[in-house]
Design a protein that fits this description.
Length: 220
């Protein structure tokens, strides 16, 4: 999982510009996606936890859903019978990661996670802190979190979002199987885009030169 609540930072590499800002620089992020209850159900397995199910909870932004997310969700699912995933609101993500986050809005991120085979249910707009009421309401037996984080540092003076779970002895830190983060994915997108633009520019020059030197060819 890659957010500011994790323990390690695997994003030492940097580009000449903010990759998230570069992606969003041309146009504001105005999605035309309109979620409906039926559309959301189509992404769900429509199965609730059994009476004695071991419910595992994990939360995060899950922006630009990628292989790192899939692997940590798979690992979390293996710790219980039912995996509940909390998806932070756009406001929470922006507060903790910066104004150019998230790239995908809440509903897009929620459906991306819900479509993952290891996820049983999602909380759309989960709170930053895991409260006692949440744990009781969803019958959560274990709260987990990965070790991979974004570069943004936590807000000064913020409390531990897992304080309640830790005090109840139901918190577990999971070693993230992959070091991929939203920022690293954005870096790849920009690098590939720049390579594409350079290749096309070179091709355009070659084509221009060809047409400038082109001569009439007789059919005789």
């Amino acid at each position: 999982m890659e957010d500011t609540k994790a323990c390690e930072d695997h994003n030492n590499a940097s580009l000449p510009r903010d990759p998230l800002r570069a992606i969003q620089s041309k146009d504001a992020h105005l999605s035309q996606f309109l979620p409906t209850s039926r559309r959301i159900v189509q992404f769900s397995n429509c199965k609730g936890p059994g009476p004695n199910a071991r419910v595992v909870y994990i939360d995060g932004a899950f922006d630009l859903f990628h292989a790192g997310h899939v692997e940590i969700l798979k690992k979390a699912r293996q710790l219980g019978d039912f995996l509940l995933v909390g998806i932070y609101t756009d406001q929470i993500v922006s507060e903790h990661r910066g104004s150019y986050h998230p790239i995908m809005h809440l509903h897009e991120r929620s459906l991306s996670v819900l479509a993952c085979r290891y996820v049983d249910e999602v909380i759309i707009g989960a709170p930053w802190e895991v409260t006692k009421d949440m744990i009781t309401t969803f019958n959560i037996c274990l709260v987990v979190h990965g070790t991979v984080s974004e570069t943004n540092t936590p807000l000064t003076g913020q409390s531990d979002p897992y304080e309640v779970a830790k005090s109840m002895g139901i918190f577990q830190l999971l070693e993230s199987p992959k070091s991929i983060t939203t920022t690293s994915v954005a870096q790849r997108i920009i690098a590939n885009h720049e390579a594409y633009m350079k290749r096309n520019a070179k091709k355009a020059v070659s084509e221009k030169k060809y047409y400038e030197q082109k001569m009439f060819v007789s059919g005789d």
